[in-house]
Amino acid sequence: MDVVRVLFLLSASLFVCCCAQQPSCNHVLVYNKAFDWLMQQRNDQWLWKRNNERVVLAIQMSNHSWASDTRDLSSQLTLKQMNLATIEQIHESKAGREPALSPGQLAYVINAVAFTCQSPSNFYGLNLIDALKHQLNGSRVPSGAFLNHYEYGLSVLALCNSNAHVQANYVDVLLRGMRSDYTHRFGSDEASMVISAVACLLQRDDRFMQKFDHNLPARIDHLLSHQESNGGFGNVHSTALAIQALSAVVDLKNSIRLILEYSRCSTAVAKAQQWLCGAQEEDGSYGSLYTTAEALPALTSGTYVHNPSHCHVVNEGAEQSNPYINYVWEFFQPSARYIEIRVQAVNGRTGSVLYNETLRDVRKDTPLVDIVQQISESDDMFVYETEETAWGNVITSMYGIAQDGHSYSYWTIKHGPPGSEKPAHVGIDQLKPANGESVVFEYRVITHGQ
Prior knowledge:
Shape: globular
Helix content: 40-55%
Strand content: 5-15%
Low-confidence stretches: 1-21, 317-335
Radius of gyration: 22 Å
Largest sheet: 5 strands, mixed
Number of helices: 16
Order of helices and strands: HHHHHHHHHHHHHHHEEHEEEEEE
């Protein structure tokens, strides 16, 4: 035990030394500006345009007392409205008037319900846990109900945070989520979510370490390899996810086997939070609604792992005992109907990146014109204009940058596998991105023959 205590003190001293070299960052001020901006985006129904469960989850991850704060009833109003909106979406899906929820969307709902101390197994008479397990059972990744291990890890997190039984085969799928060279197909985001899921399992029962003894450190190595010299992980979203995952590892202070990981993770978190402070915009946001929400828990070292000391989530009843379960399964559809794409907007003349996000839960065969419209509805800064041409609808302006025939500067579109995108030969109303593709809008000079 003395050796363990010495190692812990050594790792802590390394963390202090590292942090002492970093310029100061007023995390409280940065957090409050982002939180205030986020609250200002609510409408007269006390909700946001979309992804309400994801925003509520992120806020609650950053401040576990937010939803129960009796001094400000607006938080409780938002929670009530989120619940009603979720129930409405379920019934609208049943009637065919709204798209069905994918397993990833359902996992976000369950996590939000659990973090706000409600019961996902009896959510207004619906057993959301059984509905999610129906998708997990027999699934392989990437195929069937799950596109990748990001969504699968998020689903295992939902079960873990709800105190539901996590079957051994679910854990085995997580273990198989890495390639033989210990890398993830979808990079740091996928690694971050899987690490968070593993951390939740270890918090519940450290006997899981027998399965993850060598696997977890390798995942941490892979995630840390994505950290850039400035401390970030490519963009705000990926940086926030990485902070949350690494902070979840740091929180496992009772694990002797992981004690040497604490220093590495703590140092990486401090650098990433420093970068995150500097990435905040003057109005307090981080560009878009969801990106700003995702940054909140990262600024406070909040994680996707629910702390039982905040409240105990009750998993009511045996699995599949709910009389509504057959009804529930009908509207939670597998991800075979959904795809994941990367969307970028780049000013090629200045080299600046205007937009860079991974979109998950995009319905299969959705035209690009509908995708950009959905982005603009959730991100007020994503403003664009189109024009009908012989090639179909084309982008003529984006982020206030309009095409200029005098300087031969135009918005172009490329799509395809990341790193191998090719020019699109149809308009945005005809282009339907495929799963895993990258779509790049680039403002550049087009000379004759290009």
